[in-house]
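During the no-cost extension, the postdoctoral fellow (Dr. R.K.) reprocessed legacy sequence entries with the updated structure-token encoder. One reprocessed record is reproduced below for audit purposes.
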Amino acid sequence: MENPQAKLARKLNLLLDLYESQGSGPLSYREISEHMAAKGTPLSRSRWAYMRSGDSSMATERELLRNLAEFFGVDSQYLLDESAEIPDLVEAQLKLLRSMRETRVKNFAARQLQGISPDTLARLRDVIDERMRRGDEESY
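Re-encoded structure tokens follow.
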């Protein structure tokens, strides 16, 4: 069973992935740090790294978690409640992100595999589709 720190780390990393997937590029520590400081909950670089890796038992400060949730635009219960499920908005964005990644893989394969027989391409597409289906079943 996943410990509370690992669960929080997974949730934070999902939020970071979603932030990046929205076209903003990777989120810098500085952006998060400035927001947290402005809200009165300073966040050191090492604490942030520990929170993201799931190695921190210090990541239970409720006000900090509320401010992080606000920063990412999710209900604070998502980070505060260990049993909280992924919010609908995050779930929808994750599905969109998966779909976009699948499309990128298929497009890359199509560009790189020019000159391969249609039968081979069809088999490759089937393998990719099957892997993506299994990934959905194993998803977050």
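The chain has a mean pLDDT of 79. The two ends are 14 Å apart (CA to CA). The remaining legacy entries will be reprocessed before the final report is submitted.
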